[in-house]
Write a structure and sequence with these properties.
- Helices cover 8% and strands 47% of the residues.
- The protein is built from 3 helices and 18 strands.
- The chain has helices spanning 2-17, 304-307, 312-316, and strands spanning 24-25, 53-61, 71-80, 85-96, 99-113, 118-133, 152-153, 157-168, 174-179, 194-195, 200-205, 208-209, 214-224, 231-240, 244-251, 255-263, 268-277, 288-297.
- It has a 14-stranded antiparallel beta barrel. Strands 1-10 form a two-stranded parallel sheet.
- The protein has one domain (2-322): Beta Barrel (Porin), CATH 2.40.160.40.
- Strand 8 (157-168) and strand 9 (174-179) form a beta hairpin.
- It is mainly β.
Length: 325
């Protein structure tokens, strides 16, 4: 019975991501939902657009009960170096069914002040990638199917990317457009069954301060590519006292999500997202989890909030934010 359930779940996954017997569009770009915390992953123009250097780790596990379900792991560095310039790196591993992809890239960006309110940032990306098809462990109805007879690897290939960003002071409004990968993979003998695509991303959002206690961060992301349906997602996150944030999101014709984040101090942040599918996959799995850890390298000029030590009682006392002046 256990083996039968595993085969059934794997079959559901393959049915959702494949169009049989026509070609399959392989999901090569990782589908992170907490991208607003590390937008550099899809837009190198964000590199260096931070107050302090950041190191980040992320992990996403989608549809956990299904064998071969998508998984993504990332490590990123966003370095604020000399004035107007930024450097960064991104290491990603993505797996969905038999498709496995690894990326290592470096980013460079230049930031230009347009006037007292607006800034422009432009970034470029260069790196190496490898994509492979590993059919080991698949439970096949026809063990002799030639489509799954031989594993495949693209080898190590160079890749390029770019990103632009316009932002108003304190990120009250920001707009970004990018292509993190310009060159798509060639699947060789499997090119007729699998095809890679290059995504164009557009991100729009803002940071609105309600009062000294609460700020609201709406965000929207649009994905465009040839040969696959366009998609979009929105998220609204509220931040409380620069300590805790809570948000809700929706991915078009795919899922609802809720996210929670905690600033343990001025340096460490931990974010978590839980996603619920709205498609037929919900009959098999309702569990998608994503987590991110951010560490800031702060040397000086700490925000005023962190300079003054506070007792626990002072931290939870919110009445002062609503007192009449």
């Amino acid at each position: 019975m256990k083996k039968t359930n595993t085969i059934f779940r794997l079959g559901c996954l393959l049915l959702l991501v494949c169009i049989l017997p026509s070609k399959t569009i392989a999901q090569i770009d990782p589908g992170f939902s907490l991208y607003r915390i590390y937008p550099q992953v899809i837009n190198p123009g964000y590199t260096g657009a931070v107050e302090n250097t950041e190191l980040l780790l992320s992990h996403r596990n989608q549809w956990m009960e299904i064998a071969g379900s998508p998984k993504s792991v990332g490590a990123m560095g966003n370095f604020k170096t000399i004035k107007q310039k930024g450097f960064g790196f991104t290491v990603l591993y993505d797996q969905a069914g038999p498709v496995r992809a690894t990326y290592i890239s470096g980013d460079f960006s230049y930031h230009l002040k347009l006037n007292d309110q607006w800034k422009f940032s432009g970034g470029i990306r260069g790196g190496l990638s490898n994509t492979s098809l590993d059919f080991t462990g698949l439970s096949l109805k026809d063990a002799g199917d030639p489509s799954f007879a031989q594993n495949f690897s693209t080898g190590i290939n160079p890749n390029l990317g770019w990103g632009l960003r316009f932002s108003k002071k304190n990120d009250e409004i920001y707009v970004g457009i990018s292509q993190p990968r310009l060159i798509w993979n060639n699947f060789g003998i499997y090119e007729g069954a699998y095809k890679d695509v290059s995504m164009l991303y557009t991100m729009v959002g803002g940071n609105y301060k309600i009062n000294d206690l609460i700020s609201i961060n709406p965000n929207a992301l649009f994905r465009l590519a040839a040969d696959i349906p366009n998609s979009w997602e929105v998220n609204v996150t509220a931040n409380l006292m620069k300590l805790v944030d809570f948000g809700v999101g929706y991915r078009s014709m795919n899922s609802f999500s809720t996210n929670l984040g905690v600033n343990f101090n001025s340096k460490m942040y931990l974010g978590y997202l839980y996603e619920i599918p709205t498609t037929e996959i919900s009959q098999v799995s309702n569990q998608t989890h994503e987590i991110v850890f951010r560490y800031r390298l702060i040397k000086e000029n700490l925000p005023q909030y962190y300079k003054k030590k506070k007792s626990f009682k002072e931290m939870i006392d919110v009445r002062k934010y609503f007192r009449r002046k």
